[in-house]
Specification:
The structure is a single chain. The protein has ten helices and 18 strands. It is α/β, with parallel strands linked by helices. The strands form four sheets. Strands 3, 5, 6, 9, 10, 17 and 18 form a seven-stranded mixed beta sheet that branches. It folds into two domains: 3-138 and 294-329, Quinone Oxidoreductase, Chain A, domain 1; 148-272, NAD(P)-binding Rossmann-like Domain (Rossmann fold), CATH 3.40.50.720.
């Protein structure tokens, strides 16, 4: 039987190129010829063994490509259309989903962790989670649509009032996308990151000011923690003004400490923002790219299909977004 090539994580920090069965489009599904996949911090955590996953697994979830087959119940007109993948497959039936909070769906399947991802020549997924790509968008823009949806959701949940002072802690991919989105909506934030190169990129995509340390800066009405560390969480709470809101977007795995009394006296809010709610935030991300927003401005590195392990190993070493190109399903 003809199979496909896939980059498979078989053990922490060990990627092998293997042949796997050709994916099939079941009822309500499509098969996508993968063209590109972004490298996400969650991919890196699984690659390093810092986040649990059932190995072996095909990683990669920030994907785009072309539909090559559709299953029963799917419009055949989708064949040959370019699509962007929404990789968090939610049940749409649990209490959270019915209330519109699909981001916390108890039955959610994450493609690349709970099911095969997209560091492969082809992959299948439910058609409802394959979004027709904006016409004329660059490959770099398409590979950043999914993380842009994360930023869209975080901004919606933060709901900064007009004229609010906004701080972004961390100028990794998510912090940069938040900066880009905030600037595009008329809210130019202050961005803090210890790396000069990251701060330069933050200023290039819309930061009003860049600093290596939040201490000494005025309190902020809204603070986005996008660094994913306990220290950044503590700094976010400290930097939030009375009555303000701190939004945690990063995935810090270690305990953070703060004095509850100071938190309560501020009358501030602490909001956790995990991924996005289907379909509203992904639809908005697609619409923003259609309207001219270019999230691909944060992309700085491109790897070939045979370099998936290298891309994951080097992800934390550089600034901006890295992605893996899989031209014509091979590379």
């Amino acid at each position: 039987m003809v199979g496909i090539k896939a980059a498979v994580l078989v053990a922490p920090e060990e990627i092998r190129t293997e042949e796997r069965p050709e994916p099939e489009a079941g009822p309500g599904e499509v098969v996508v010829q993968v063209e590109g996949v972004g490298v996400c911090g969650s991919d890196v955590a699984v690659y390093r063994g810092d986040r649990a996953a059932r190995l072996p697994v095909v990683q990669g979830h920030e994907a785009f490509g072309r539909v090559v087959a559709v299953g029963p119940g799917v419009d055949p007109a989708l064949v040959s259309r370019r699509v962007v993948v929404e990789p968090n497959i939610v049940c749409l039936d649990c209490e959270s989903c019915r209330s519109g909070r699909t981001s916390v769906c108890a039955r959610k399947r994450v493609l690349s962790i709970d099911a095969p991802g997209f560091f492969a020549e082809r992959a299948s997924l439910p058609a409802e989670f394959a979004w027709v790509a904006p016409e004329g968008a660059s490959e770099e823009d398409l590979v950043t649509v999914e993380p842009l949806a994360v930023a869209v959701a975080a901004l919606r949940r933060a709901d900064p009032p007009p004229g609010a002072r906004v701080l972004v802690l961390g100028a990794g991919s998510q912090g940069l996308l938040l900066t880009l989105l905030l600037a595009a909506t008329g809210r130019r934030p202050v961005v803090v990151d210890p790396r000069p190169e990251a701060l330069a990129l933050a200023e290039a995509v819309g930061a009003a000011e860049a600093a290596a340390d939040p201490r000494g800066l005025a309190p902020f009405d809204v603070v986005f923690e996008a660094a994913g560390s306990a220290r950044a969480v503590e700094a976010a709470i400290e930097a939030t003004a009375p009555g303000g809101r701190a939004v945690l977007v990063g995935l810090a795995g270690e305990p953070a400490s703060f004095v509850p009394l100071r938190f309560v006296r501020k009358g501030m809010e602490l909001v956790g923002s995990i991924i996005y709610d289907h379909p509203r935030d992904f639809r908005q991300a697609i619409a923003l790219v259609e309207g001219g927003l270019k999230p691909g401005r944060i992309v700085t590195r491109r790897y070939g299909f045979g370099e998936v392990g290298r891309a994951l190993a080097e992800a934390k070493a550089g600034v901006g977004k890295a992605w893996v190109s899989i031209p014509n399903g091979r590379g």
